[in-house]
Amino acid sequence: MAGVVVTSFQVLSYEKVMSLFFDDNRKNLKLDDSYTSLCIEEMEIDNEKGLTEDEKNFIGFSISFKKVNLLMCFFIAAFMILVFRIWLLQIARGEYYSSIAEGNRIRIHYIKPRRGVIFDRTGKQLAANMPSFSLKIIQSDLPKDEAEKEKLLREIASLAEKSYDGICQLLEENSAYYYQPIIIKEDLDYETALMLYVKSISMPGVALEEVSKRLYITSSDNNSISHILGYNGKISQQELEKVDDANYLLDDYTGKTGIESIYERELRGVLGKSQVETNALGKMVRIVAKNDSISGLDIALSIDYEFQTFIENLLKDEFKNLKKEKASVIVLDPNNGEILSMVSLPSFNNNLFIHGISNDDYSKLINDERKPLFDRAVAGEYPPGSTFKPIMAAAALEEGIITETTKIKSVGGIWVGQWFFPDWASSGHGFVNVKSAIANSVNTFFYYAGGGYNDFEGLGIEKISRYAQIFNLGENTGIDLPGEGRGFVPNVLWKEERFNEPWYIGDTYHVSIGQGYLLATPIQVALYTSFFANGGVLYKPHIAKAFLDGNEIRNLPKEYLRKSIIKPDNVNIVRVGMRDAVKYGSARLLSSLPFASAGKTGTAQTSKNKDPHAWFTCFAPYDNPEIVVTVLVEEGGEGSSVSVPIAKKILEYYWENVRK
Fold first, then answer.
1. Are 377 and 328 a contacting pair, CB within 8 Å?
2. Is 486 buried (19+), middle (13-18) or exposed (0-12) by CB count in 10 A?
């Protein structure tokens, strides 16, 4: 039998290699007895198994026994070094490294972002950040021994002038925030903060932190801006659960009302983090890694603070003569919806809230019958009175109920059975068309246009309601302030469900002159006045004008709610009627101004036992309007004698000091 001697491992296929060890070739396998391991020294292979000539040749590689021994020695030496290192770390120096691991730990320290600053349209700072000091406890760093922990907490209670039980209760309530700082005392004066800082160095789990808090431009004399700015307050447990908890901590502050609340996300910024090595007392040894915070955006408002202050002081002066205390004034740009001024009186000082308002101060505010916390400009809902008549006129013209030349005779009112619906002038106004009816606020004309009379067909309540809603009554305007009222637009079904009685023609007459169940907010009245000012667009009113990010200014785009809802010719007829109110009608006091204006008065009755609300809304200049002014004095009396003089002084100030 022919054979082949294999002196080294050849590179063969798996099947060929396996065939060497089985079948007939197993008897040809020879082992060298000088090695305990299997070593192929010589093997005869039956050539009949099909090896080719190439496979018979040496095509592999050889490893000598010397190299194998060297490799084994290397692995043994590496293993012995590893064993020695483990012995050194865990046994010889185990106690030392154990203390290091216990005392020095990697912690996450949060870096709070700078809150954005708020400016008025001229660059005047309205809300700033001021430094403040707070004493805090991190529960995870307190002593583990209960006796030591109690001793430390009692010492902290003494230094912070807090009760021991109170601190324990605070820690218990916030046990879920084991690794976050818990505020023990805020707004420390500098001397106290310095003393506590020195002592806290040797106190485990105790830290003194410099934080920033809001400071507003408001004062006890001028604080109407508070309703606009709102205020910041400590985040509550409920708020913390709702917001992005990755960007807020238990000791953070958040916007509670006003611009501070609406633009919380933009003003807040992004929380930063740093990995720090701390010692056994929880004090930082070194920073391992750091991810800086991102500052909040600054905001420029459309408000002119000097203009705002002027109007606030003007109202307070008028209150002395009128013996009234509640009013609202809105000034906006009809071409983009920017609010130049928004005053609601009485108001409050939002600086009372930045350090946590006292129980006495808060009790005074909420128990004040004048409701100083209530923003009348956006949340107050009142009968709009005759300021609603421009909408009635536009609806009647649009529906073909009247034309520009339609005339109706006013004799002092109309009778429906035993019910009398009066004009404000008991002797009547004679024959009037739509323009003179707006100018002199003739009720009879709008009774006809709204509910009809005898053979004259009116709009009816369903169409009146539909047009009121088109002009955004009964809906939010979307102004960027919280708590906006919707007003109210009644209809037949509502009355049946609410009072279980039918809708009467008298109800329609009342709504036609802005009375009865119809309600509107001052911002809604200013909004639909701007529609007639600019020729047919309802722009969304807004307070924020731009975001400031470093050197970048991002202006907010103007948005409109509705447009092209009334034909231009009909809009112009209403505008002429409002202009005539200044020329010869109920607002002729404005005719002495050095520029043309247009407006509509309103006297809205609410109760037989109270004076009516005094309304006036106007725009100027007439040909190229720049501002809308809406004035409401609650229970002020006649709009023509109370609110028109206020609006005149506002227009004069604007013309001389504000317009560019």
1. yes
2. middle
HEC readout, 323-363? CCCCEEEEEECCCCCEEEEEEEECCCCHHHHCCCCCHHHHH
Tokens of 359: 């129980």
Residue type, 496: E
> Catalytic site residue 386?
yes
The CATH code of the domain at 106-301 is 3.90.1310.10
Cα separation, 235 vs 228, whole angstroms: 20
Is residue 651 within 8 Å of 629, Cβ to Cβ?
yes
**Exposed e or buried b per residue across 46-74, where buried means at least 16 C-beta atoms within 10 angstroms of its C-beta:** beeeebeeeeeeeeeeeeeeeeeeeeeee
First and final C-alpha spacing in the chain = 118
Q: What is the pTM of this model?
A: 0.79
Residues 6+ apart with CB under 8 A from 14: none
**Reduced to 3 states, what is the DSSP secondary structure of residue 563?**
strand
Identified catalytic residue from 132, 302, 386, 586: 386
- Report the distance separating Cα 538 and Cα 566, nearest Å: 11
| Residue 140 to residue 118: CA distance in whole angstroms | 37
Q: Report the distance separating Cα 294 and Cα 114, nearest Å.
A: 8
Q: Per CATH, which fold does 308-356+376-658 belong to? A: Beta-lactamase (3.40.710)
Contacts of 608 (CB under 8 A, 6+ apart): none
Residue 266: CB atoms within 10 Å: 16
φ/ψ of residue 213, rounded to 5: -130, 160
- pLDDT tens by residue, 271-294: 888 777 777 666 667 777 778 889
Contact between 625 and 531 under an 8 Å Cβ cutoff? The reply is: no
DSSP string, 449-476: HHH-BTTB----HHHHHHHHHHTTTTS-
| Amino acid identity for residue 175 in this structure | S
Structure tokens at 278: 């701390």
SS3 category, 116: coil
Domain ranges of the chain: 14-62, 66-103, 106-301, 308-356+376-658
Q: Which residues contact 611 (CB under 8 A, 6 or more apart)?
A: 635, 636, 637
Q: Quick: pLDDT tens for 154-212.
A: 888 888 888 888 888 888 888 877 777 888 888 787 788 888 888 877 888 888 887 88
Q: What is the pLDDT of residues 505-554, one digit of tens each?
A: 999 999 999 999 999 999 999 999 999 999 999 999 999 999 998 888 99
What is each CA distance from 655 to 80, 561, 641, 648, in whole angstroms?
93, 29, 22, 11
Distances from the Cα of 621 to the Cαs of 184, 579, 586, 617, 654, in angstroms? 58, 10, 18, 14, 11
∠ CA 324-362-128, nearest 5°, is: 90
Look at residues 244, 292, 273, 101 and name the one whose alpha carbon lies nearest to residue 179: 273
Residue by residue, DSSP assigns 94-114 as HHHHHHHHHH-EEEEEEEPPP
